[in-house]
Amino acid sequence: MNPLNEDKAETTRLEDLRIRQVSPLISPALLQHDLPADAAVQSRIEGWRRAVADVVHGRDPRLLVVVGPCSIHDSEQALDYARKLKAEADALQDDLLVVMRVYFEKPRTTVGWKGFINDPHLDGSFRINEGLRRARELLLAIARLGLPAGTEFLDLLSPQYIADLVSWGAIGARTTESPSHRQLASGLSCAIGFKNGTDGGVQMAADALVAGGAPHAFMGMTKMGQVAVFETAGNEDCHIILRGGSRGPNYSAADVQAACALLAKAGVEQHLMVDCSHANSSKQYERQVEVARDVAAQVAGGERRIMGLMVESHLAPGRQDLKPGVPLQYGVSITDACLGWDATQPLLRDLAAASRARRGR
Prior knowledge:
By secondary structure, the chain is α/β, with parallel strands linked by helices.
């Protein structure tokens, strides 16, 4: 046997032993060429990003409210929700800056449906190229409605496909401590919220603000699909999100004070967002209203360090399971349970009233 061929055979035996298949992936540049952001969309997103940053830094006294489905699983239902939210956002724009929650990627504690990008047909077929295209189409449609979109950045490559259409982003509780996600945040062009850890600890989120605001150099993929070294300038528009944890909720006035003390010690701005769902609502979706009312009372009382809230909301309340052969109910979440629109609308108006009261103090 030729020694060169023998070396090649040995190398092959050492690689990809657990990879079942490798399929081609469309490049970000090609997808953006097929589905471009026109001048009007670009102008809107630039304006929304500036507005979000102004709220994050306290230059704009309004509340930032990120509201929408736990996850997107159907484009038409998402657009139906977006139309309702757009009308409410316009009516409350003097007091609230409303961003629609448009989450395409779902972190799983063990296994499960990983989101619209990963599995757009909800059947384990993993047509990721189609998922990326449909996600971008939806973001464009929402932007053209006149509504800013927010999403969680989970996969490190997917931002190259959709981040230009995102006005606010989040790094989740399971990835806030990840150095790779902190580096990613340092180079993203929109404001980023880091959630506290799943145990409720805020220190890692405070550390993430410091890391996300600093410059970094790391490996990544360009729009053309080429591996490259990225050098970032740091993202000065980062903030933390209190979402509770295994220790319990953390949205009370005392929790806000404790979190801000950690932020002050870290040398970063004392501005934060409260997630009304997850551990703050003890995973009982109806309790989001109770959490929001408590936070609204703090805001109305003059608490200016709370710059925003997050609410999980869909067209209809609750959640449903994905079951083969069983049709899904329209407008009901297939991941975390959500408030229905009928409960969301008055909640938004209560938050607007709190924001208005704070501004008048």
